[in-house]
Amino acid sequence: MVSLGEFSRVVSSIYAAAITPVHWEVALRDIRRVLGSEQAGLFVDDPSWSVGNSTLPGEAAASYAQYYHRFDHVFAAVEHGLVGDIRTGTELMPLVRRSELHDWLRPLGIDDGLFVRLTDGARPVCLLTGAARGDEAFGTRDRIRLTGELVGHLQQALRAREQLAALADRTGELAAALEVIRHGVGIVAADHLMIDHNSAAERILRREDGLALRSGRITATTAHAEEKLHCALAQALGAGLCAVRRGTTLTCVRPSGRRPYIVHVLPSYRSSGEQPRRPMALVLIVDPEDKPVPPAVLLRKLYGLTRAEAEIAIRVTDGAHLKDISQELSISLPTVRTHLQHAFDKTGTHRQADLVHLLLALSP
């Protein structure tokens, strides 16, 4: 008979595994202990049966995935059963007594046990609690009852793990998307909390030159700019008296004397599973001092520029004079002008200002 304290510890370890998957082995060891089994494991059919997490030795799990899974008529029967239905070794083990799988099971002390399909769908997860054959069948009334009480917690933990994994994927995708933008981008929730931002925004906020992050909130470092930013965020979030959400563009003075940031604050949303969409504000910070230069490879790929033409176009974008380019590249001034004219022709521009405008627009 399992005490309430022991049962509580097992349940706690199951939910700990949902949050931190490396703890599944601990949870399965706890399940094995309270049931008195030799082994415990989660088996996954994706696209053939393999050991997900278990107390099995690593080499045993590998050999099962590589070879012995093809003879596993036990889990084939469990898969075709109902979700949550507890099947006994007395019922199922005869299916594999004379197969090669029995050679894999015997050294592991599995000749009896309890088996449960925990999840539905095309990628089912099943629980194994395996034991050696004894005078009494492993599937006693107490063990079946205890397993039944654990099934609901295991199913909830697996659902939580799946949702957390999906959330991590979405967060990773969002972070990757933000990183391709060269300007500072942040996502702001209620109370001006910055819940996500890219590395460009991180650099800007770390300088505390006009904008900063204080207690997780985006703020301006001057009183006048802070008032404008506060109002813009309220309008984007629909907070206070701002019933209609709308975007705002403002400038933010920098104490360093550099050109002010241009800050676009736009309404946005973030969904969380089945929860209602939450109002968010997308903050785009443009630093006029940042003058990106498109890579030569991009110019050559998009417009067919030669290496020399692309190099000269980039230097012009950076503000270099043609005479200086001639000296730096050790080519004559007429040659520089010829390459530049070819760059004009290939990009459909007619003067240096047009070319600079086009090249600056290439960088996201």
TrEMBL record:
Annotated InterPro entries: Sig_transdc_resp-reg_C-effctor, Tscrpt_reg_LuxR_C, WH-like_DNA-bd_sf
GO biological process: regulation of DNA-templated transcription
Signal peptide positions (record): none
Pfam family, one: GerE
SUPFAM superfamilies: C-terminal effector domain of the bipartite response regulators (SSF46894)
Gene Ontology MF annotations: DNA binding
Domain of life of the source: Bacteria
UniProt protein name: LuxR family transcriptional regulator
